[in-house]
Every structure is written in structure tokens, then in C-alpha cells.
Design a protein that fits this description.
The chain is an all-alpha fold. It has a single domain, classed as Orthogonal Bundle (MetI-like fold), CATH 1.10.3720.10. Helices cover about 80% and strands about 0% of the residues. It is built from eleven helices and two strands. The chain has a two-stranded antiparallel sheet with strand order 1-2. The longest helix has about 35 residues. It is globular, with a radius of gyration of 22 Å. It starts with 5 loop residues before the first helix and ends with a helix. The mean pLDDT is about 85.
Length: about 260
């Protein structure tokens, strides 16, 4: 910590708790408590039950969770492939070229996600590429939304790479492809895993664009949470939200372990 005095540290911790508890911890605790309740008419929930979780982990809810996981993993893989390729290619361009490339990749973040969903819907509702009504349009929209984060993360890491490693490998006769696979990508692995985790988390929680695009047989879990709360089933929606958060945290924990091992390497 930058604060070395004991009183200063206590003040910083107190300030952190004052901000963290009401803004982050308390809402999550309320959702967690509601997921076990059948009634909440007082200060605390009543009628504690685990029935909401039984319904949230089977049938259509389990299918929705699987849909969200497949969508997030697919979108993250596509985003990492495109974003990493663009970051490596853009590093070889001049300053003006990199600026244009960064602007293109940042466009989906400059507008609301619902606008991105509408753009994808209009673009792929007519031949020759007709994706409307299929799962592929949802996967494509999620990939478009998260690719910007992958590109920005990898671009920042590429700039920080020490060129001496690549120059040493090239001087020993390594081909450009060998330098890429054996030198650059291993050095970028911590940043790649961090970007993949960010893309996965953002895709798991995406709702606005998904609402415009999802077909009946490809309903991600955030859509099901919205539908449950819209019908007034707040406790069921809370259980679904906890399941969504738990699945996301578990995947991010696995990605974090991979990143830690990559950092040690």
C-alpha cells in the first residue's frame, strides 16, 4: 500500500468498506438471500427453501445455463482469435494505421449494445448470409461485442514486449512463424488469459443485444432471468442469478490459475 502510517491504513480500509459494502456487497447479499426465500415482507426474508435452486439447475434453466456457457466460450474464442491477430498485425503498422485499427475495433463500445444487436439483425436477415432465427447470430453478436476488449488488452501487452527476445530468436535462424509461436505468444499468454476471462464474463452477462436476436431454442440464462423477474418471480430470478454468478466465477477462477502459471513461466 502507498499509505504507510497505521492511522492512514485504517482510514483507507474504512473508506473502502464504506464504498464496497453498499455498492457491491449488499446488492449481492440481497440477491443471495432472496434466492432462498419464499416471502420477503419484513426486514429479512422468510420461508427459507432450496426449491428455487432445484428448479434453476434442471430442465429449461439448465439448458439456458449450458447455452450461456457455450455462447460465452465460443464468443471468447472468436474474439481472442480476431483480436490477437489484429493486435499483432496492427503493431507492425505505423501510428496512423494503428489509430484507424483501434478506432474500428472500439466502435462496438462507442454505441449501446442494443444498437449492435440491431445492426447484426439487419445485416444478417437477408441472403446471401441469412443468420436470423439461428443460434449463430447470437454467437456473432457476442463475439462482436467482446472483441474490442480482447484487442485492447492484447494491443497493450504487445507494446510492452521486449523486442530483444524476438531479435535473438530471429538471429538464430528462427522463421517468423516460429518466433510467433515459440516467443511472442508465450510471452503474451498472461495477457491472453486475462483478456479471455474478461470476454467470457462480459458475454455471460450480456442481455440487451441478446434480447433482440435469440431464437426460442437458444435462450441464454440472462434472458431467462429477465423473463422470470418480469413475470414477478423475483425469488426464482434471484436463484438463477446466483447460478449465473457461480458458473462465471468458477470459470474465471480456472482462467486465473492458468494465468498465474503462465506468469511464473
Amino acid at each position: 500500500m502507498l499509505v504507510h502510517s497505521r492511522k492512514g491504513k485504517w482510514a483507507v480500509w474504512a473508506f473502502f468498506l464504506v464504498l464496497f459494502l453498499p455498492l457491491f456487497a449488499l446488492p449481492l447479499l440481497v440477491v443471495l438471500a432472496a434466492s432462498f426465500a419464499t416471502n420477503w415482507s419484513g426486514a429479512l426474508p422468510s420461508g427459507l427453501t432450496t426449491g428455487h435452486y432445484a428448479a434453476a439447475t434442471r430442465g429449461e434453466s439448465l439448458h439456458a445455463l449450458t447455452t450461456s456457457l457455450v455462447t460465452a466460450v465460443t464468443a471468447s474464442v472468436l474474439a481472442m482469435l480476431v483480436g490477437t491477430w489484429a493486435a499483432l498485425a496492427g503493431h507492425a503498422l505505423g501510428r496512423r494505421g494503428r489509430r484507424v485499427l483501434d478506432t474500428l475495433f472500439m466502435l462496438p463500445l462507442a454505441v449501446p449494445s442494443v444498437v449492435v444487436g440491431l445492426a447484426v439483425l439487419v445485416a444478417f436477415s437477408q441472403p446471401p448470409v441469412l443468420l436470423n432465427g439461428t443460434r449463430w447470430i447470437v454467437l456473432l453478436a457476442h463475439a462482436v461485442l467482446v472483441t474490442a476488449f480482447a484487442h485492447q488488452s492484447v494491443s497493450a501487452a504487445v507494446v510492452r514486449l521486449d523486442p530483444a527476445y524476438e531479435q535473438a530468436a530471429a538471429s538464430l535462424g528462427a522463421r517468423p512463424s516460429t518466433v510467433l509461436w515459440r516467443v511472442r505468444l508465450p510471452l503474451l499468454l498472461p495477457s491472453l488469459t486475462a483478456a479471455a476471462g474478461l470476454c467470457f464474463a462480459l458475454s455471460m452477462g450480456e442481455l440487451s443485444a441478446t434480447m433482440m436476436l435469440y431464437p426460442p431454442d437458444w435462450t441464454p440464462l440472462p434472458v431467462r432471468i429477465y423473463a422470470a423477474t418480469d413475470r414477478g418471480a423475483l425469488f426464482t430470478g434471484s436463484a438463477l442469478a446466483v447460478v449465473l454468478m457461480t458458473a462465471t466465477v468458477l470459470v474465471l477462477s480456472a482462467v486465473s490459475r492458468i494465468r498465474t502459471r503462465a506468469s511464473y513461466r
